[in-house]
From TrEMBL:
<keyword id="KW-0285">Flavoprotein</keyword>
<dbReference type="Pfam" id="PF02913">
    <property type="entry name" value="FAD-oxidase_C"/>
</dbReference>
<keyword id="KW-0560">Oxidoreductase</keyword>
<keyword id="KW-0274">FAD</keyword>
<dbReference type="InterPro" id="IPR004113">
    <property type="entry name" value="FAD-bd_oxidored_4_C"/>
</dbReference>
<feature type="domain" description="FAD-binding PCMH-type">
    <location>
        <begin position="33"/>
        <end position="214"/>
    </location>
</feature>
<dbReference type="GO" id="GO:0022904">
    <property type="term" value="P:respiratory electron transport chain"/>
</dbReference>
<dbReference type="InterPro" id="IPR036318">
    <property type="entry name" value="FAD-bd_PCMH-like_sf"/>
</dbReference>
<dbReference type="InterPro" id="IPR016166">
    <property type="entry name" value="FAD-bd_PCMH"/>
</dbReference>
<dbReference type="InterPro" id="IPR006094">
    <property type="entry name" value="Oxid_FAD_bind_N"/>
</dbReference>
<dbReference type="GO" id="GO:0016491">
    <property type="term" value="F:oxidoreductase activity"/>
</dbReference>
<dbReference type="Pfam" id="PF01565">
    <property type="entry name" value="FAD_binding_4"/>
</dbReference>
<dbReference type="InterPro" id="IPR016167">
    <property type="entry name" value="FAD-bd_PCMH_sub1"/>
</dbReference>
<dbReference type="InterPro" id="IPR016171">
    <property type="entry name" value="Vanillyl_alc_oxidase_C-sub2"/>
</dbReference>
<dbReference type="InterPro" id="IPR051264">
    <property type="entry name" value="FAD-oxidored/transferase_4"/>
</dbReference>
<protein>
    <submittedName>
        <fullName>FAD/FMN-containing dehydrogenase</fullName>
    </submittedName>
</protein>
<dbReference type="GO" id="GO:0071949">
    <property type="term" value="F:FAD binding"/>
</dbReference>
């Protein structure tokens, strides 16, 4: 069956589109999820994607869409059956159009996020989605996970940046929805169904994305804070004076920063004294001389007076800005060097962040004394990566054995504050079963109804998102 399938897939995608050595496509970025596949294909056009999907549908073979494979919940990895086909979009990397007057860019799904940012910059525009994996993640993956990152506070998530989509449906038909319209009230907004669906409703092949005026000045500060309440207050104080020029407020616990200082290269502590929490604050403007340093200094001065900020450093020059961002963006990798981790991307109303941290810290310390909480993230969006590493000295086996119980503490804590158990990374394989405890039966029924309508045979990324 596999040899026959491979031959038929080769007929569709040609020799260049059939992967000989599939190893890199079968395990995720962290090595946390692995599977096997009947074949890995890399179609070069929408027509080829449609033909692959139609062939798989005819043969009853499941398809797993994959972009840069940087996802953090196992959504792009096939199961262990060896019967699924991984459909990688990485050969579909054409920028089809940049319409400067409409401020839009039309790109294929396999274009790497950083390439889109660079194309926008070359045209004097900004594509504002920004995240640690931007050098390898793809626009298709960003869309399928409704990626967030560090610019959401000002520009919104991928959902907000998307005007149109082209999608190959599970039956092989192509939905041509590549419209560059900011206003269109002609019925249901179908594109939003595919954004955040993690490849369970179809394969996104191209998108029209919104561009913004280029940023010509920024100010970046590293701020020491006494507690999470101070971080919430900081967002308020800076927003009051900077308004829309506030682009990012990233929160980091001392534990998170210590991991980067221990494992990162070329990083150093920006503030000599040790503080329990830090925030990275960024302001930006389209004017070249917007005087943002003065704006951020005044806002931080106000925050110090109100007792919100304990100490602060405003970056002088682009090298220092890069060092501060390296401290923030290095946390994910640094935590991996500390052994197995339990990753979380919860959200709560911003005002509830202090209560969330206090309650969850307490419950975890009781459940597993010494557990290392690595809390950081997009505090301006109410989204925290409340990640866990095991106690020291390390006993990885014992820590892994407690995963279900510890995860539940974090999820319950977010849910008790009307939060979400996944604000960014999605459900994939990792949370697809636990979500049944946090969504109402009605919500699950509607989700299953949508899946049934678009993918009645259940062949599009099965085993992901929807509870089994
Ligand atoms: P993949 O990992 O290949 O796939 C992700 C999901 O999308 C899978 O379910 C897959 O089936 C589906 N998919 C992929 N392409 C398509 C397509 N064309 N059509 C349909 N379905 C598709 N995420 C954030 O939101 N914010 C962050 O700040 C952030 N920071 C990160 C930092 C690091 C260091 C790393 C490793 C990851 C980070 N992520 C973050 C997670 C990840 O980068 C994002 O989820 C990203 O959007 C995934 O893109 P990808 O191309 O790698 O997708
Ligand atoms: C981030 O904000 C990413 O850095 C990754 O969403 C979070 O690795 C993580 O847990
Ligand atoms: Zn994040």
């Amino acid at each position: 069956m596999t040899a026959d399938l491979a031959a038929r897939l080769r007929d569709v995608v040609g020799p260049a589109g059939l992967v000989d050595d599939p190893a890199g496509f079968l395990t995720d970025w962290r090595g946390a999820y692995s599977g096997t596949a009947a074949a890995v294909v890399r179609p070069g056009s929408t027509e080829e994607v449609a033909a692959v999907v139609a062939l798989c549908r005819d043969l009853g073979v499941a398809v797993v869409p994959q972009g840069g494979n940087t996802g953090l919940c196992g959504g792009a990895v096939p199961d262990a059956s060896g019967r699924q086909v991984v459909l990688s979009l990485t050969r579909m990397r054409r920028i089809r159009d940049l319409d400067a007057a409409n401020s839009t860019i039309t790109v294929e799904a396999g274009v790497v996020l950083q390439t889109v940012q660079e194309a926008a910059a070359a045209a004097g525009r900004l594509f504002p989605l920004s995240l640690g994996a931007e050098g390898s993640c793809t626009i298709g993956g960003n869309l399928a996970t409704n990626a967030g990152g560090t610019g959401v506070l000002r520009y919104g998530t991928m959902r907000d940046l998307t005007l149109g989509l082209e999608v190959v449906l599970p039956d092989g038909r192509v939905w041509h929805g590549l419209r560059g319209l900011r206003k269109d009230n002609t019925g249901y907004d179908l594109k939003q169904l595919f954004v955040g669906a993690e490849g369970t409703l179809g394969v996104i092949t191209a998108a029209v994305l919104e561009l913004f005026p280029a940023v010509r000045s920024t100010a970046t500060a590293w701020v020491a804070l006494p507690d999470p309440q101070a971080a919430v207050d900081l967002v308020g104080v800076v927003r009051e004076s900077a308004g829309d020029r506030l682009t990012a407020v990233e929160l980091m616990s001392r534990q998170s920063v210590e991991f980067v200082l221990r494992h990162g290269t070329g990083v150093r502590d920006p503030i000599a004294d040790v503080h329990p929490w830090y925030a990275l604050v960024e302001l930006s403007d389209t004017l070249p001389d917007a005087g943002l340093d003065a704006v951020v200094e005044a806002a931080l001065g106000e925050a110090v007076e109100r007792g919100v900020v304990t100490d602060a450093v405003v970056a002088a020059g682009s090298a220092q800005v890069a060092t501060l961002w390296a401290l923030r963006e290095g946390i994910s990798e640094a935590q991996d060097s500390e052994g197995p981790s339990l990753k979380h991307d919860v959200s709560v109303p911003i005002s509830s962040i202090p209560a969330f941290v206090a309650a969850t810290d307490r419950a975890l310390a009781e459940a597993l004394p010494g557990v290392r909480v690595v809390a950081y993230g997009h505090v301006g969006d109410g989204n925290l990566h409340y990640n866990l590493s095991g106690p020291e000295p390390r006993d990885d086996g014992a820590f892994r054995a407690r995963a279900g119980e510890l995860n539940r503490i974090v999820h319950d804590s977010a849910a008790a504050l009307d939060g979400s158990i996944s604000a960014e990374h999605g459900l994939g394989q990792s949370k697809r079963d636990v979500i049944a405890d946090y969504k109402s039966p009605l919500e699950l029924e509607l989700m299953r109804g949508v899946k049934q309508l678009l993918d009645p045979a259940g062949l599009m990324n099965p085993g992901k998102v929807l509870p089994g």
